[in-house]
Fold each of these.
Amino acid sequence: MALAHARVFGQPALQEATPSPYKAYIETYGCQMNFADSELVAGILQAEGYGFTTDPQEADLVLLNTCAIREHAEEKIWQRLKYFQSLKVRRPHLLVGVLGCMAERLRKKLLEEAPVVDLVAGPDSYRHLPQLIRQVESGAKAIHVLLSREETYADIAPLRLSPHRVSAYISIMRGCNNMCSFCIVPFTRGRERSRNWESILQEAQDLAAKGYKEITLLGQNVDSYHDRGVRFAQLLARLAEAVPQVWIRFATSHPKDMQDEVLETIASYPNLTPYIHLPVQSGSDTVLQRMNRGYTAAWYLQRVEAIRRYLPQAVLSTDIIVGFCGETEAEYQETLALMRAAAFDSVYHFMYSERPGTLAARRYKDDVPLEVKKARLEGVIALAQELNLESHRRQVGTVHLALLEKPARKDPRDMAGRTFSGQAVVVRQAADRYPPSTILKVRIVEATSATLIGDVADPSPVSP
Ligand code: SAH
Ligand code: SF4
Ligand code: F3S
């Protein structure tokens, strides 16, 4: 799933939370799943009487929800901890906690190597946070990093972060049972488990009642969702019927597991969006085998063909890793060839970063020199931009439904949003007429590699 930049928890929590003398500051790194987890953590803290702030300087409790996917993600956290160390000198009562995947990976080491850290809690330990905080308040360091086979937080109400009530995440499962050889996630998030479908429906209905227009269902591998006979396709169908006015998206699909029944279901409901994130990682069969992905390039392209057949309007995005162990120039070229063959609409690209303890770290040498990795990444980026621009250009002249999110950064008279199929769109001259959350018909008039640009095609909103 897409990786987010650091995000700070604040504004809406400030609006919704009851005023409290104790203020928490939450900073989130990593993927959408971590972002959703921060909302859970905020919900747990709110029930304990905490308020929230966007300014760490006035916080009593600082929580960093961390990512361990690449070395760079962890380096950033060490830097941030230095900053919080300096803050603590001025505010000695400040408590600092590290949550998330890096907490799970490093465990006690975090307490040992960063004395500023008071508390360490892994992704399955958030229910214990109030008790861990009390332990720290009584003068001891606190750590809870046990992974669980059952925890889904199904009964915990998240405190929503988005400043406008437009879109929200719902985690439908946790953990991952795949063992992609490069990946740390199975070690930091444990075994896969699906949340019960009734609680997912309930949460979606609550969001719809509050006026949310878009829900993204989250899981590391949504295709293996199952709860007492309800598979992912049936979950989608039930949700589509339960909240017919809400656009439903999901991430992430796995090429080896993605079933036609899911594509068929999307095609048969008007509020299931044809946006598919299908990480390929590499276009070379030998690399895919070393990565332990469980499919070949031909299999992947056959999945792409199925997507385009069931969902001609589909927007297809992917993840690519360059410079994986032993990747030759010829193998790299196969990745570029697959990118063209799949005609991706959007590509997230990464340089391989060895993670201690993974299958790849134990089995293979991280032997592609950094300069080669960098050059290959540049190649992927250049091609990705080309494909992105082509994909956007194909839309010029067509009419799309667009969900408005917020005033555009470049010109606040325009509104930024997303099309039904998931592409970024800037709607010109819409800000003074339509508030965030409006769904409009928009005619695409221009395209850059970053965004579609459109005009209002029909002044009456489809949904206000
Ligand atoms: N199951 C999730 C994986 C989340 S990680 C998903 O498929 O979206 C998101 C992406 O990070 C992966 O798809 C992969 O492209 C990238 N990634 C994971 N481990 C990595 C590593 N060790 N080095 C570089 N990129 C990595
Ligand atoms: Fe990692 Fe693979 Fe699981 Fe995704 S499917 S979280 S890449 S092990
Ligand atoms: Fe997500 Fe990073 Fe963990 S990508 S699952 S926060 S390692």
Note: The pocket of S-adenosyl-L-homocysteine (ligand 1) is lined by residues 1, 31, 69-70, 182-183, 185, 220-221, 252, 279, 281, 319, 321, 350, 352-353, 355 (CB under 6 Å).
Amino acid sequence: METKKFYITTAIDYTNGNPHIGHAYEKVAADVLARWHKLRGEDVFFLTGTDEHGAKIAAAAEKAGKAPQEFTDEIAAKFQKTWQNLEISPSRFIRTTDEDHVKTVGEILQKIKDNGYLYEGEYTGLYCVGHEAFITEKELVNGVCPDHKTKPEVVKEKNWFFEVSAFTGDIKKRIERSEGDENGEGAVSGGLKIWPEQKRNEILSWLEQGFTDVSVTRPNVKWAIPAPWDPEQTVYVWIDALINYLSGAGFVLDRGEFERYWPADVHVIGADIVKFHCIIWPAMLLAAGMELPKEVVVHGMFTVNGEKMSKSLGNVIDPNGWVLKYGADAVRYLLMREVPWGQDGDVSEEKLLARYEGDLANGLGNLVSRTTNMIEKYCDGQVPEILRESDLPESALSPLQEVGALIEELRFHEALAKIWESIAWANQYIDGAKPWVLAKTDLKKTREILSLLSAHILAVAHKLAPFLPHTAERMRKTFESGKIGKINDLFPRIE
Ligand code: ME8
């Protein structure tokens, strides 16, 4: 049987500033899904990267006194290092300044133009550089963009426009019929699933209101990809960025690989960029005669102690600091455990510390250290027999059996809650069985209990692997090796 492929992407982050905890949330979530599908034996391609062109980045480079390329080289390297530190392992880290991406953008836009969906026009409007998008008068608050607190630029310029309106009816149908009726009957092939439901409904209502055409080139932005047919114009940064999902899978570099992975199975993105991914992107693909991604999953936005992260407030959380102090797995755990998918969330170091001390050190860490210490003491570091998962009692096993389905439904926080329900079972089992008392009278029974706990810890490690890869690997290695060494430092005390 041919191995199933699974192509998953994240949004690519702007390189006008350093990676923050909101970026990290999205990449960890995608990494968890990618690892889960790998564990299931699928052929996974996981793409992430950086979005490096446009006026916003050119301005940040100028402010730093650097050439745009030099500036983005530095920031892109920081993103890559941060994902390494967080044990996020993409198949490719794409940069929109990569040569093959620049080529792909030219080819796709030319194709859309050849197919007759671009026309020349004059644009008069307001442009918010922070959003890298046009903004309407109505959206302003006291004359400034409510998100960036900056005055938009008044723009009057010649642009090439893309006829999004030609595709809105088709896109609406594909979203509506992505899953068919309640029995899955009548699902169209080429349907586009949007999750959560509330986002899907938002998109459907925008499509109903009619969606205006968008400009795909700009005349005065120099730090951008040239439009192949018009030397006066460069490609609008959002159009450039969306095409990364094609170039990243090998559109120019390796066509065979591209054919294998496209269409993407899942685009993971944040709530602020759904219109681009659920309307403009599908329209671009349809205009180029290509297949649509199967699903867009949308996460909420993170605040810190209840406030929006911003440079001016000085509350931007750099995930690297937390990783240094608490370890990658603890940060991954916090992000996946704290906030239900789709909801906006709030994170802080207090919350991280509470999860670290409670769930990780006292819950999981304690279970592993008690068990390994007793195995050393009562079994000379070797359990008589590692039992199978199916030998575990129902109350330990059934929460673990729910984990896979919960991950696939993006209910990461519930998946972790189930794993911890099972960990709590084991800690209670030890408290009740009191092997340290039993060992004085019945060593055989004591060893049976430790065999059962070993099987349990291996089962937990298996389900934990996508979330806490380093910890799970240590647990697995220890309990699978003939000699089980003591592990007392899975989650050391924070000084
Ligand atoms: O939008 N909480 O880049 P970006 C949670 N380059 N997620 C957050 C967040 C927060 N506070 N801030 C940002 C862009 N994100 C474009 C994307 S894709 C073809 C181009 C998420 O650096 C955001 O929702 O502003 C998005 O999914 C990703 O981080 C990159 O945001």
Note: The two ends are 52 Å apart (CA to CA).
